[in-house]
Amino acid sequence: MSKAVEGQPQKKRKKALWIILLCLILVPALAAGGYLLMINKAWNKAETIENAMPNEDGSVNTVHNDQLQEMVDKATKAPEEITNESGASLKDNISEGDSDGDGILDKVEGGAVTSRPANTNSTDILLLGSDQRSGAEAQYVTGARADSIMVLHIPEDGSAAYLISIMRDTWVNIPGYGSHKVNAGLNYGGVDLQVATIEQLLGMQMDHVAEIDFEGFKALVDTLGGVTVDVPLAFKASAPGYSFAAGPQTMTGGQALVYVRERYNFSDGDYQRVRNQRAFLRGVYNQLRSEGALSSAAKLLPVIESVSPYMKVDSGLSPAAIVGIAQPVLSNGNTQLVSLTLPNAGTGWSWDGQSIVVLDAAATSALSHALQTDTMPNYIATYGAD
After folding, report:
1. 350: which of 89, 194, 222, 354 fits an S-S bond (Cβ 3.0–4.6 Å)?
2. Is 171 helix (H, G, I), strand (E, B) or coil?
3. Alpha carbon distance 326, 329 (integer Å)
4. pLDDT truncated to tens, each residue of the chain (386 aa)?
5. Mind giving me the DSSP string for 196-254?
6. Is the distance from CB of 197 to CB of 186 less than 8 angstroms?
7. How many CA atoms lie within 13 A of 204 on its CB side?
8. Beta 123-132 vs 144-154: how paired, if at all?
9. From CA 180, how far away is CA 169, in angstroms rounded?
10. In whole angstroms, what is the distance from residue 212 CA to residue 290 CA?
11. Are strands 227-231 and 311-313 parallel, antiparallel or unpaired?
12. Considering the entire predicted model, what is its pTM?
C-alpha cells in the first residue's frame, strides 16, 4: 500500500469505483456464469491495495509520519494572529467544539484507536476519489488526498443501497494525529489510516475500500462517447475556458473532470461539489443504461478496461465477492439507491485557522446507530435524504 515516506515509488491507481457501484447495484446479469467469467478476466488485469484495512487491534500498517506532523504543527499560528475573510480574529468566532471559549474548534492530541469497531451484517464499502499530488509536496504525502469520500451501505436484506457522502473538510479525529480534516487520513498515512478514520467516525467496520484517481473520470466519459449530466447550478469553472449551464449538458471527459472537481466558485464550496458529483453519477448510470452496457458484457467490458489504470481496491473485493454481496440486492428486485450527506452543522474554524465543516454530533450519532442496526428508513424519516 502507499505510505507517507519520502522517495517511495507510488503504485498505479487501480480499479473503478464506478464499476464497483454498477456491479453491486445495477447489473443483474452479473450472476450469469459466462458474464462473470468475462468480467473476471478484465478485472484481474489490475493490481490491488496491499494492507488496505486496519489491524484488528485498531493499529494501521503505515508508520506515523513524524516529519509531516512537525510541518503541520510548525504552520500553526496563535489564535489571535489568524483572521477570517472579514478580518475578524478567530477568537471572535465561537464554534461548536470550543470547550475553552477561545473561539476555535479544539485540537485533540493523539487520538489512537484501541480496537476496530464491531463488524455488522450489512456490507459497507469506503469509496475514495483522490487528487494526485506531484513535485515537492509529493515527498510528504501518499500521493493523493481524498477529495471525494463516500460510504456505500447495503443492508443484509438488500432492501436498499445507501450512498453517504462525507464532506472532505469535515473536522474529525485522525487516529494518531488528533483533530484534522477527514481527508487528511489518506494524506498522513495511506488507505488503511483513511479507513480507520471513517470506521472511528461511524463506529462500524468497513468491509472493503476502493480508490479512484480523478483522471479516471476522463477515461470513463470518453469511453462512453460523452455523458449527459443534469447540471443543478450554472457556474463558470476556475479552470479557464470552462462554464456549465443549468440543465442537461453533454460533457466530454475533460469537461467532466473539471465539473466534478470544481468547488471554489460556489458560495457553499464543497456542498455544491458533492451535489454535482452525484449528478454526474446519475448521468453515467443513465448513459450506461441507454447504451445497453448494463445488460451487455461486450459493451461493459471496454468501460472496465478504460478506467482500470486509474483505480485500485482491497484484495478481498474480487468479482466473486461482488456477486455474493450483490445477491440480496438482486433478489430483492426493487432496490433503490438513496443518497445523503453525513450530517453537519455548517462551517467553522479549526484550531490552526482552517475553514472547516463542523459535525452535527447528535445527527451523526443517530446515523451511526441506524447504520449499525440496519434501521436506515427510520433515520431517513427523521433527517431526510438528498
Report:
1. 354
2. strand
3. 5
4. 333 333 443 433 344 455 555 554 444 444 445 555 655 665 555 567 877 888 887 778 776 666 666 655 554 444 444 444 444 443 343 344 444 444 444 444 445 555 788 888 999 999 888 765 433 334 433 445 677 898 989 898 888 888 899 998 999 998 888 888 998 888 788 888 999 999 999 999 999 998 877 777 788 899 889 999 999 999 999 999 999 999 999 999 999 989 988 988 898 888 888 888 888 877 887 787 777 665 555 676 677 777 777 777 888 877 667 667 766 765 665 667 788 899 999 888 887 788 899 999 999 999 999 999 999 999 999 998 87
5. HHHHHHHTS--SEEEEEETHHHHHHHHHTT-EEEEESS-EE-SSTT-EE-SEEEEE-HH
6. no
7. 24
8. antiparallel
9. 9
10. 24
11. unpaired
12. 0.74
- Please name the residue that has the C-alpha cell 443492508: 155
**Crossing angle (nearest 10°) for helices 361-373 and 191-202:** 100
> Which three-class secondary structure state does DSSP give residue 380?
helix
Could you tell me which residues are beta bridge partners of residue 123? 154
